[in-house]
Amino acid sequence: MKAIIYQKYGHPEVLQLKEVEKPIPGDREILIKVHATPVSFGDLLVRNFKAVTPKKFHMPFLFWLIGKFYFGFRKPRITILGSEFAGEIESIGRKVIRFREGEQVFGYRGSQMGAYAGYLCMPESGVVALKPANMTHEEASSVPYGTIMALHAVRKVNLKPGQKVLVNGASGGIGPAIVQLARYHGAIVTGVCSTRRMEFVKSLGAGRVIDYTKEDFTKEGETYDYIFDILGKCSFSQCKQVLNDNGRLLLISFKMKQVLQMLWTSMTGSKKVICVISTEKAEDLDFIKELIEAGKIKSIIDKSFPLEQAAQAHAYVEGGHKTGSVVIRVQGLHENDL
To answer: Which pairing describes strands 16-19 and 301-306: parallel, antiparallel, or unpaired?
Structure first.
């Protein structure tokens, strides 16, 4: 089968189309013919992980160190990127009972990655579910990670209709899902993003969108019940003044300083810091599928690239051009094309 391989860290051109061995499913695994996989923030990070210092990393030092051991210090240990996918089950192991051959699925592989390839194997107990009937493979492939993360973040609080929510970083991989989930709960949502992505965030259901290049939401005088900060761009001291009593600052990315703030604010004051860590579960993806089919969650594709243009797809995303998801089309590059 064909796959995008990288054998050294670096810029997008390290991604090369190669022929690799097609995987064989175990007794409790399913073999999936991959149709689409998105270019995620994680893909960009891991592709050039050698250049990521603890200071540049978006999580505490321990997470960085674990990542270095897992992905490799000098050269990649995992050579096929892609943590999200959508495709079709080609075959199943003899003990699989949850899925059948021919079913269309979508899922999340986490740090195992491997979706930049014609085929992949997943345990039937993994984070994989039937693809929403009202989404294409490209649309479905870009849903799992961001929406699962958003689901865990929103579940940290008791969102009620009419409450005011601000999403700082509303146009990335997780922010759009938080906007939509907050709207699903009846919240009044304000999104913060760059100028060129304002219309995109509005289309997701944000009642108001702030252009961070022109305005500072912490100095406008508007207050919120919950602030979701995707990349840890604002401090608690800044956000505290625009949080209502009993308000919460939820950090999707955080350093040790924010962990200590979470511990401190858990014991003092009415305004709290919450550092969000999620654990991915198959049932979360099943629930997300239901929301999608009910019209509560949508996926907007900015641009798609064929598998052989994975390097161009990475360059496009790194250049800051995308508005919505950028997807790699894998279909058409299976054994009949070799």
So the answer is: unpaired
pLDDT band at 321 (very low <50, low <70, confident <90, very high): confident
Report in angstroms the alpha-carbon separations of 169 from 172, 175, 179, 191, 274: 6, 6, 10, 7, 17
State the alpha helices, DSSP H only, in the chain: 41-47, 61-71, 137-141, 144-155, 175-184, 198-203, 236-240, 256-265, 282-293, 310-318
Residues 188 and 311 in one domain: no
Q: Is residue 182 part of a domain?
A: yes
Q: pTM of the prediction?
A: 0.92
Which string of DSSP letters, residue by residue, matches 230-268?
SS--S-HHHHHTTEEEEEEEEESS--HHHHHHHHHHTTS
133/7 same-domain check: yes
Give residue 124's domain range: 2-143+299-337
Residue type, 39: V
Residue 284 domain-assigned?
A: no
Closest CA to 205 of 141, 303, 298: 298
Q: CA of 127: how far to CAs of 80, 100, 107, 247, 294, in Å?
A: 19, 16, 6, 32, 21
**Over the Cα atoms of the chain, what is R_g?**
20
Q: pLDDT band for 337, please (50, 70, 90 cuts).
A: very low
pLDDT single digits (tens) 198-223? 999 999 999 999 999 999 999 988 99
* CA dist., res. 67 & res. 274, Å (int): 23
Question: What pLDDT shows up at residue 232?
Answer: 84
Longest alpha-carbon distance in the chain: 64
Q: Read off the pLDDT of each residue in 250-270 and give the average, rounded to a whole number.
A: 94
Average pLDDT, the chain: 94
Q: Are 188 and 164 in contact (CB under 8 A)?
A: yes
28, HSE (Cβ side, Cα atoms, 13 Å) = 4
- Whole-number Å distance between alpha carbons of 258 and 268: 15
